[in-house]
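Hey, quick one: can you model this chain's 3D structure?
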Amino acid sequence: MESFRLLIDGFGGALTPVNLMYALIGVTLGTLVGVLPGIGPAMTVALLLPVTFTVPPTSAFIMFAGIYYGGMYGGSTTSILLNTPGESSSMITALEGNKMARRGRAAQALATAAIGSFVAGTIATGLLVVAAPAVVAFAISFGPEDYFALALLAFTAVSSVLSRSVVRGLASLGLGLTIGLIGIDQQTGQARLTFGVPQLLDGIDVVIVAVGLFAVGEALYVASRLRHTPPEVVPVGRAWLGRDDWRRSWRPWLRGTALGFPFGALPGGGAEIPTFLSYAAEKRLARGVAREEYGKGAIEGVAGPEAANNASAAGTLVPLLTLGLPTSATAAIMLAAFQQYGLQPGPQLFDHNPALVWSMIASLFIGNTMLLVLNLPLAPLWARVLRVPRPYLYAGIVLFAALGVYALNGTVVDLVVLYLLGLLGYAMRRFGLPVAPAVIGMILGPMAEIQLRRALAIGAGDPAVLVGSPTAVVLLALAAAALLTPVVRTVLGRRKLLRTSRED
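Sure thing. Here's the predicted structure for all 504 residues.
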């Protein structure tokens, strides 16, 4: 009951005229930028981080929450109308959604995606209200060794799950950890990796890293590969659902929500696995007309995965807010946003800044409602946004990123670092290295170092202190499992293939 009382207080903060305005700005910007091809929620939040530097924290996070959910909504529009997923979690939506659009049912595909996102987001946010205090109560007992083990779990899980290979994921993580070392060592006072540049003594601002690797790097990569001509967009009218569409959609919405929320809360779980599982489950459960339409544009293949996608977004906020543990690329950028304001997500955030946390959670309900109202009537407008010429779009992104970063400290060094990181982000995409582990390594690396030193100091230098807590042992075991599972799966797959070839 205490959670619901705090949530009511949160609504009191979120429903003020100023915060409602920021929520509306957030969902509108999130949808607008999320609609554009190649620009997902992570890049959207990263691009707008510098803009909110002077905004009060509560208002800023209400806007970020709106951008996060809006970006998830917008990604479905690109997938359905262009067959161009903005991020990997929208790939499944494109399978059936684009086929529906080409059959003249773009309006129905967009409607079931929008309403399913609303249903899933609302239910999952309710689950967040229930789950968050329970996780906080557990996390209060964490010691330094537990936090170090938790950071290792985040490193290994994200590196192995968000990459096509463990080696590439760990290589990206190593780059992020190296960037996190730049600056003055907090315990010894020694300068590390500053190359004699005074502006680097305080380290590289996390906002510059996020904008450089995500926004500039993505813009350079996508601009280097997409044609300069406007894309062919499938015509769309007002988004609506008929009675039969409602009947076929509501069960996939609920099943997708049930799959998406727990996977979003797992380290490295993300939205890719639940969206695929939702698509597979709906295909297996399809009967009659739905079974015949699968592969040709079945509405269930859009409703379920989109619900799973948005439910996982709310699930991602559970470990982020309660443990300071990002489980996706967008969550890593949100963590950067907290650090921009000198805040560290975790149990103390709920104790020291309850108004901020609960206003942000309450704003998720408000933002969901705003998004539904915006997306259903404005679907034709979002379709027109897709006709923006690509050179103007990505040149504008790079310029906007530069202006935002320069406004932070007003130094040319920040711009040089931004474009160097942008080139690094481009090279990482070019050679198949995931960006999320680098950002998470840069953000969590200093925290992991501090907690490791504290644990060793408490244990008088004995490494056994790192496994002295049952919680730390469990977390380290999970980290080892996350690291070794892809390797074991690959080895077993090769053995099976070799055995099959021998039998043939």
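One thing worth noting: The radius of gyration is 23 Å.
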